[in-house]
Automatic annotation (TrEMBL):
Protein name: RING-type E3 ubiquitin transferase
Similarity remark: Belongs to the TRIM/RBCC family.
Catalytic activity line of the entry: S-ubiquitinyl-[E2 ubiquitin-conjugating enzyme]-L-cysteine + [acceptor protein]-L-lysine = [E2 ubiquitin-conjugating enzyme]-L-cysteine + N(6)-ubiquitinyl-[acceptor protein]-L-lysine
Subcellular location: Cytoplasm
Keywords of this entry: Coiled coil, Cytoplasm, Metal-binding, Transferase, Ubl conjugation pathway, Zinc, Zinc-finger
EC code: 2.3.2.27
Enzyme class: transferase
Domain annotation RING-type: ranges: 29-81
GO cellular component assignments: cytoplasm
Gene label: TRIM7
Higher taxonomy: Eukaryota, Metazoa, Chordata, Craniata, Vertebrata
Region Disordered, residue ranges: 281-324
UniProt pathway: Protein modification; protein ubiquitination
Gene3D superfamilies noted in UniProt: Classic Zinc Finger (3.30.160.60), Zinc/RING finger domain, C3HC4 (zinc finger) (3.30.40.10)
InterPro entries reported in the protein's UniProt record: TRIM/RBCC, Znf_B-box, Znf_B-box_chordata, Znf_RING, Znf_RING/FYVE/PHD, Znf_RING_CS
């Protein structure tokens, strides 16, 4: 078996454990004082276990009553008391990953902000009583130098605890860079979506105003055309009535004259022959039978009878014939 070498350096292990303890303080929930489980961040920036903050806000004496949980309003942050909205909890996957790695080391949780000394952070091996200065990658837990030489871990990949912490940090930093890049991209996408949405809403508002103006002008045009047509029809109605009365009066006079002449002819035909012959010439001179080609013209035609049929501008809409 290869020698452990620098992995048993107590100074390096103490420094790594101190760093792990410092990192551990940043991944400990301030409510349950345990490593984060399903950490979520509130609007003020603090993070808590999802179940812990839910229980904290459900405790009696909190300013918001139970009925308000149906429509969450601002509630105090358990750490800084700043008002935050329960509906704005954001999962913190980076903290969850770090807490999972630290949990695999088997180290106890520290209170938030607490910095343990290197000697206190070095937990002892339960089996051998030696400080846990090494980390077994196969088993995913911290071990001592005696465990490293035991048959159980002989074929396992073992690293000094500080190197394991460093690798974990580098892995988290690389993931954090990717997450930050994704976050920036999503922020750009959101900005573009908001800009496009505002532009579309602006175009829709302009189109709505345009359609309203067009229909308003169309309604005004139709009202004007209706007035013109109704006025023209009223004028034609008066003209028809006047001409009809004139024609009826003229026809009445003609009928009276013809009836009188017809009666005169009938009386002449009933007289004796000599009287009949004498009055025959008088009857002819009075125009009883003026002969073909000498009849009086008929009465004036009704106005509009010689005009074309009204033009239609659409279903049920008639325009006056041109010219009016």
């Amino acid at each position: 078996m290869a020698a452990v070498g620098p992995r048993t350096d107590p100074g390096a292990g103490a420094e790594a454990l101190a760093l792990a303890a410092e990192l551990q303080g940043e991944t400990t929930c301030s409510i349950c004082l345990e490593l984060f489980r399903e950490p979520v961040s509130v609007e003020c920036g603090h993070s808590f276990c999802r179940s812990c903050i839910a229980r904290c806000w459900e405790r009696p004496g909190v300013e918001a009553p139970a009925a308000s949980r149906a429509l969450p309003g601002p509630l105090p942050c358990p750490q800084c008391r700043e008002p935050v909205r329960p509906g704005q909890l954001r999962p913190n996957r980076q903290l969850a990953s770090v807490a999972t790695l630290l949990r695999r080391f088997g180290l106890p949780a520290a209170a938030p902000g607490e910095r343990q000394p290197a000697e206190a952070a070095l937990a002892a091996c339960v089996q051998h009583g030696e400080p846990l200065k090494l980390y077994c990658q196969d088993d995913g837990r911290a071990i001592c130098v005696v465990c490293d030489r035991a048959r159980e871990h002989r074929a396992h990949a073992v690293l000094p605890l500080d190197e394991a912490v460093q690798e974990a940090k580098e892995l988290l930093e690389s993931r954090l860079k990717v997450l930050k890049k994704d976050l920036e991209d999503y922020e750009v996408f959101r900005s573009m979506e908001e800009k496009e949405s505002k532009e579309l809403l602006k175009q829709m508002a302009a189109e709505r105003e345009k359609v309203g103006a067009e229909f308003q002008a169309l309604r005004a045009f139709l009202v004007e055309q209706e007035g013109r047509l109704l006025g023209r029809l009223e004028e034609l109605s008066r003209e028809v009535t006047q001409k009809q009365n004139e024609n009826i009066a003229q026809l009445g006079g003609e009928i009276t004259q013809l009836s009188k002449l017809s009666s005169q002819i009938q009386e002449t035909t009933r007289k004796p022959d000599l009287d009949f012959l004498q009055e025959f010439k008088n009857t002819l001179s009075s125009g009883a039978d003026p002969g073909p080609g000498h009849r009086q013209p008929p009465p004036h035609p009704l106005p509009g009878s010689e005009e074309r049929a009204p033009r239609t501008a659409g279903p049920g809409l008639a325009l006056p014939p041109t010219p009016l």
